[in-house]
Task: structure prediction
Amino acid sequence: MVFSGFRQGCRSLHRACVGFAWTREACGIRDASHRALSSSQAYSDVVKHSYEGISGWGRVIGAAFVAGTGTALYYSNLDKTPASCGGPGVAAGAHRPEMPTFSKEEVAKHKTKDTGIWVTYKDGVYDVTDWVDIHPGGASRLMLAAGGPIDPFWAMYAQHNTEQVQSILEEYRLGNLEGGGSVAVGNPYENEPTDRHPSLVVRSTTPMNSETPMELLGESLVTPNDLFFIRNHLPVPDIDGKEYSFEVEGEGLKRLSLSLDDLKSNFKKHSITVTIQCTGNRRKDMMDTPSPKEIKGLEWQGAAIGTAVWGGVLLRDVLKEAGIDENDPDIEHIRFYGHDGDITGSTYGASIPLAKAMDVRGDVLLAYEMNGKELTRDHGYPLRVVVPGVAACRSVKWLKKIEASRHESESFWQQRDYKTFSPNVDWDTVDWTSSPAIQSMPVTSAITYPAPGFFVERDGDDDLTVTVKGYAWSGGGNGIIRVDVSTDDGKTWQDASLKKAHQQSGRTWAWTLWECDVEIPKGHIGPLDIVAKATDESCNTQPERAEGIWNLRGVVCNTWPRIRIDIKE
Result:
């Protein structure tokens, strides 16, 4: 371990020194002696400047050398944009004339940690050796591009196409690619659905992620299909329902291959009203909480949630048909694989505990209908999983395979995403293995009406009320028993009236809509904050503030919802 850390520290220090040389050149301070700078000279130069305080580099490099922590620490004191070295407006992959040139053959020789792991992007060559182990998508994904271009992968995972991510990449720049980048990258999103409703509030286009307009959520217990939020991780598959089938296999099971007709003909149909909520719903509220640490993820407001009457067959019935033994010690999880995949053949996947899958009151569905209609492509046509009371990321769409296993899903989204951590954990210290995958969701609520900025005029000293609406929901089948609304930051509360579908206790999978005619304090003129909180039948209630539940992914945010309106004379 000591030797490994020492070696990593040396490698980080060497890269730091080379980077120092380039930066001096880029910033116009290169001299004649610098042209022939050797490794030993670079080390001496950096050590010397570390005590002169230039950019704090030496202190950071020294710490990296001693601790073997690599570039995560090395770059902590550097400017966060490539413009700090390459000049204003330098974009990732752009040609940089002050840097050396490497051939594709030279790049291809660097595929391991021993040789250094190099990749190319557009016209740029990058040494990502120290980034591999801290890559948020996992080392194995980054290694797929080792010695070659990352362009096709970034076309697939469009979340890379941000200034922040490209700035990080540019910090690993080695030089330019001889002949420039010439990778022909097709558009993996060229066959996306074209019938998406224009009212959806788009958070990203590739992949498509969009919310229902907030003001519409509180109007109906069932969300219209066209306005149901869309959460996609990869391009939408285009599947012929007539040719479609999925596989059932795994520990102790006889293998089945079932078509839609098989499901409809051989299994009892069930219709269940279920609310599905994205694990990152209301992330924006957590992002707006002051913190020196960074949250990464889509800026979902409060409408990445929806309720539908899902029609299909029970998962437990299909597993029983495959001969599952619920007491088999080799079966602890049921894994789901989707048809949505990337250029490597990796597909979206998730799993749930066997206990949830087989619970007669768990109501896990293989759904082929949504509100009495065929599923749309965005919502999983021709077949999807619906796991009531559980984070929506486990309700896999475009179902390809079901597998019984001793182990949970090995997919990225089960192992390195959709987990929550202590507020003290950041992107430099996170250990994804230390936290379980999120399953059941906490109690939450949102104010859907009025919108922030709403104003009302006061007429003299007459009593004034404002109608406030919203939704409340809790995971695990817990029904909502109360929603409280306050205009004085929780000093006093008013009860909201509740509207809900009739469902059994412990199987309350659908949300509750609420409404309250809020009394405005007498004589109040000016801005007024309205907050709410929901309580479920297990007496779980929402926390007031986000500081105590802050996490680096911004998931399961369930603080008091808050809006500010204006009372005018």
About this structure: Residues 1-88 have pLDDT under 50 and may be disordered.
